[in-house]
């Protein structure tokens, strides 16, 4: 064990300061230290994407990043995407189109999809499948996840047009 | 108010079958507000994790935990020697066998649980695991069930009598020290006779490989023993919470009414979370010993290496028919690889689950099934991966046999199936391997299915593309 480091993060708009060992993984920081349990641990090897969060505008698998590497970063988890009174269109769409069963992959899935739709607002099915390839689901067979993202994309585009 | 309502209106009002309903849990799940086992936090909760065997078959000569106990944050290291006085070093399996909770003198598969480190958090537990010194003596490894049945190497010394004889197991006599059971259904003599005298016989050997259900959430639990009122609360990734309560009661001696088992949100199961695992037992023991709640969560490698697999059936079949394609007999022999312990999650009465449904949807007058269970140096298990007990294996077997017979008869497999389906008027139908089928109309369903996929069109396209 080596000396603890001082870490400052901004998670879902809130500043968090703490001392952590350099080996502390970001997913551990979120779940155990900050009680943010939306991101899940599925593989701890970057394969499954259940721990996906957004760090400084990029989708990152928080199980293979150390907390100290995120020093000064702005982090958004599923908890920062939408709550009971302001559901994100993706959260609505996953509910509506049965884009989940057990729900374990869902926070990572939706968090990744928010970035995908920022990168490509109206993605084709192929673009969705490629853009979501880092997130595994063992229940649904992906069909309805693709549908959910398509539905959210359509709704978000329509809302944007209406606003313009 | 209308006097009459239409059928559609009535169905809609009933909100029954065919009616789309919203799932109540999705609002929580989409907001990251699920409550899975690893989300549970209790005051003073400790974390337990395993020292696991790097060998598939080895004697454990010594375990030194002195260094580990000096690691900051490590509170205890449990071994089989610590559990033996309590009678907890072995546990019963769902299949009538018993399984080591922690390595009792030897290990039988790679990743087997050797010692349980209890620490203040996951990092301290990992440090403790690194510091436990285990001396192994490697033994010959048997991973092929056919070789295991011929080998002099004894995997389960606990199941061999002192005079070297092989006592019967939970499912009857055993033929060899690495043999678990033989299970038969149907009539051997008549089936062999029908096949010997048949106009056409097709044979096939197939291996339905070992697979892992691999739910996205691994297995885990939180055990909390309240020593004041004598009650145990156990949260876990349990697909069969009642069976877990019984097993925990049997081994711990805590009465069932003093054990509360809670399965909160489960991140997928697919059969993997039916079994009882050493992690559950060790967490309970550790909570009793320390007086604090203890959490155990597998990592992905632990899950893939040690918790229950599915399938691993070597199946040999013979199917006989008339020249016109009417099936007359079916014979199936299975060599079932159950790993180091028979922890198959089938109902105990059926050591090969529902494998005797292997005559499928067909009217097969004579049949015989024989399943031999075998110990090997692999992880224990044998769960129903996304199906009922061994039904996937049975269905794969019979449908493959139909295909092989169709090739032999030079007949379209769809037509061969149509000729042999149990007819609507034959229900209730008594199958040759003992099942009674209550109802069915396979021909109507078959025609509908073939039409839906445009089977004739598919065949025409095949004929055009494949030119020999």
From TrEMBL, chain A:
Its EC number is 1.2.99.2. Residues 5-81 form the 2Fe-2S ferredoxin-type domain. It holds the Pfam family Fer2_2. InterPro entries: 2Fe-2S-bd (IPR002888), 2Fe-2S-bd_dom_sf (IPR036884), 2Fe-2S_ferredoxin-like_sf (IPR036010), 2Fe-2S_ferredoxin-type (IPR001041), Beta-grasp_dom_sf (IPR012675), Diverse_Oxidoreductases (IPR051452). It comes from the Bacteria. SUPFAM superfamilies: 2Fe-2S ferredoxin-like, CO dehydrogenase ISP C-domain like. CDD domains: fer2. It is an enzyme of class 1 (oxidoreductase). Keywords: 2Fe-2S, Iron, Iron-sulfur, Metal-binding, Oxidoreductase. The keyword Metal-binding applies. GO terms for molecular function: 2 iron, 2 sulfur cluster binding; metal ion binding; oxidoreductase activity. This is Carbon monoxide dehydrogenase small chain CoxS.
């Amino acid at each position: 064990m080596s000396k603890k480091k001082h870490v400052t993060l901004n998670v879902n708009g809130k500043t968090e300061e703490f001392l952590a060992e350099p080996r502390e993984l970001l997913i551990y920081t979120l779940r155990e230290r900050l009680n943010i349990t939306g991101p899940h641990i599925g593989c701890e090897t970057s394969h499954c994407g259940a721990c996906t969060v957004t760090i400084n505008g990029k989708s990152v698998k928080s199980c293979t990043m150390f907390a100290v590497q995120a020093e000064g970063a702005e982090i958004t988890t599923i908890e920062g995407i939408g709550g009971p009174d302001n559901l994100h269109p993706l959260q609505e769409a996953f509910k509506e189109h049965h884009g989940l069963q057990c729900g374990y992959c869902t926070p990572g899935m939706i968090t990744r999809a928010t970035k995908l739709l920022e990168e490509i607002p109206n993605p084709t099915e192929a673009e969705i499948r490629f853009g979501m390839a880092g997130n595994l689901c063992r229940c649904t067979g992906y069909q309805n996840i693709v549908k959910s993202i398509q539905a959210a994309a359509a709704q978000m585009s329509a809302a944007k047009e209406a606003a313009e | 108010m209308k006097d009459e309502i239409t059928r559609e209106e009535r169905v809609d009002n009933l909100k029954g079958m065919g009616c789309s309903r919203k799932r109540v849990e999705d609002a929580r799940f989409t907001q990251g507000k699920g409550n899975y086992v690893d989300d549970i936090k209790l005051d003073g909760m400790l974390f337990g994790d395993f020292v696991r065997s790097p060998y598939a078959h080895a004697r454990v000569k010594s375990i030194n935990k002195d260094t580990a106990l000096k690691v900051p944050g490590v509170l205890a290291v449990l071994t089989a020697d610590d559990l033996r006085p309590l009678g907890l070093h072995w546990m019963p399996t769902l299949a009538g066998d018993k399984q080591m909770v922690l390595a009792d003198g030897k290990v039988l598969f790679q990743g087997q649980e050797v010692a349980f480190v209890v620490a203040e958090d996951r990092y301290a537990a990992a440090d403790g695991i690194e510091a436990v010194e285990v001396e192994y003596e490697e033994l010959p490894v048997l991973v092929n069930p056919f070789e295991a049945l011929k080998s002099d190497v004894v995997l389960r010394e606990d199941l061999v009598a002192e005079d070297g004889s092989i006592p019967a197991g939970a499912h009857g006599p055993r033929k060899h020290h690495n043999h678990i059971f033989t299970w038969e259904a149907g009539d051997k003599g008549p089936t062999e006779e029908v096949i010997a005298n048949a106009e056409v016989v097709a044979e096939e050997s197939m291996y339905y490989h070992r697979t892992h259900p691999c739910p996205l959430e691994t297995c885990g639990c939180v055990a909390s023993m309240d020593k004041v009122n004598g009650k145990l609360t156990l949260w876990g990734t349990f697909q069969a919470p009642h069976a877990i309560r019984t097993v925990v009661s049997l081994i711990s001696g805590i009465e069932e009414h003093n054990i509360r088992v809670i399965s909160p949100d489960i991140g997928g199961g697919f059969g993997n979370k039916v079994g009882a695992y050493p992690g559950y037992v060790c967490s309970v023991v550790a909570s009793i010993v320390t007086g604090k709640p203890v959490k155990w969560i597998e990592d992905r490698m632990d899950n893939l290496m040690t918790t229950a697999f599915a399938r691993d059936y070597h199946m040999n079949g013979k199917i006989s028919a008339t020249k016109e394609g009417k099936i007359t007999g079916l014979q199936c022999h299975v060599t079932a690889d159950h790993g180091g312990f028979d922890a198959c999650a089938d109902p105990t009465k059926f050591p090969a689950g529902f494998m005797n449904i292997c005559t499928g949807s067909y009217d097969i007058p004579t049949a015989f099934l024989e399943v031999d269970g075998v110990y090997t140096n692999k992880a224990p298990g044998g769960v129903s991966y996304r199906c009922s007990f061994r039904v996937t294996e049975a269905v794969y077997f019979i449908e493959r046999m139909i295909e092989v017979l169709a090739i032999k008869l030079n007949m379209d497999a769809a037509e061969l199936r149509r000729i042999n389906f149990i007819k609507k008027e034959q229900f209730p139908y008594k199958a040759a391997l003992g099942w009674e089928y209550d109802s069915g109309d396979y021909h109507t369903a078959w025609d509908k299915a073939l039409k839906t996929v445009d089977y004739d069109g598919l065949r025409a396209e095949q004929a055009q593309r494949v030119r020999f």
